[in-house]
């Protein structure tokens, strides 16, 4: 199977899930059904039933969302290869999506990753009690202004920029009161909008360090191989060739900002086409705002899958 030197794959994170995702692929493709069956065996419940029937509240629980998205993305990647799609030369994933990228790069076994992301979600939710943390999206303000206003607004609490998603779109997170203080200050400083996000845990802040420590213990028992395909990492926006160093990056990723703009710029140095491998089109939209020259495809429907095979 040929590697295509100008092709990158990107894998979505939380927020791309929805009840009913991948239904047409599940009905038509044994390979997709097999992946959901394997994940269900690891999790101890019927993951496909949850994905196909909901309810939303249960699918949106972080410890369920993470394995559901990982299983969706990995099965679509395997389907891409089965249908004759080229092996991409580079991979990247947004937050949770980086775990999907690592499976597709051969760093982790699929079943090991399903278990680890279920625990990752659980530990992240448990690190901060319900209602104590918050996240908000900031639209239309310079990154540097957001970083400095968060620092000024923190006081004895935590609020920081955690997702640099695209030029003019940054997510902040931390203690609920600190996020509210920063949101008010950001609006006064000229942000076009500051939108509270329907997420209860302040992901990618220092408040997640207890979750990282717990997950590190579970990860110690799981082999991390050197990648067969280079992965651009959220923490460094760079490529790492050592499985053991990737293990450390994935621990740090839980409490470090997602440098998505930098990751896409790194990909753009080598790739001219980027395909979003998972449900939804969130990353495709962000990529178009980061680099208009990249050709972007998605795999979230049969029609878009066929179009992307032709890119």
Task: Offer a few descriptive terms.
14 helices; 311 residues; Alpha-Beta Plaits; 4-stranded antiparallel β-sheet; 5-stranded parallel β-sheet; 2 domains; Malonyl-Coenzyme A Acyl Carrier Protein, domain 2; alpha/beta
Report what the structure shows.
The structure is a single chain. The mean pLDDT is 97. The chain folds into two domains: 3-127 and 207-309, Malonyl-Coenzyme A Acyl Carrier Protein, domain 2, CATH 3.40.366; 140-200, Alpha-Beta Plaits, CATH 3.30.70. The strands form two sheets. It has a five-stranded parallel β-sheet with strand order 7-2-1-8-9, with helices on both faces. Strands 4-5-3-6 form a four-stranded antiparallel β-sheet. It is globular and about 55 Å long. The chain has helices at 23-28, 30-43, 47-53, 56-59, 62-82, 97-104, 110-127, 143-154, 176-188, 209-219, 243-253, 260-268, 282-290, 302-309; strands at 3-11, 87-93, 133-139, 159-166, 169-175, 193-196, 231-232, 273-276, 295-298. It has 311 residues and is an alpha/beta fold. Helix 5 runs parallel beside helix 6 and helix 10 (209-219) packs antiparallel against helix 11 (243-253). The two termini are 17 Å apart. Strand 8 (273-276), helix 13 and strand 9 (295-298) form a beta-alpha-beta unit.
Give the helices and strands, then pairings.
Elements: E1 3-11, H1 23-28, H2 30-43, H3 47-53, H4 56-59, H5 62-82, E2 87-93, H6 97-104, H7 110-127, E3 133-139, H8 143-154, E4 159-166, E5 169-175, H9 176-188, E6 193-196, H10 209-219, E7 231-232, H11 243-253, H12 260-268, E8 273-276, H13 282-290, E9 295-298, H14 302-309
Parallel strand pairs: 1-2, 1-8, 2-7, 8-9
Antiparallel strand pairs: 3-5, 3-6, 4-5
Helix pairs in contact: 2-5, 2-7, 5-6, 5-7, 7-10, 8-9, 10-11
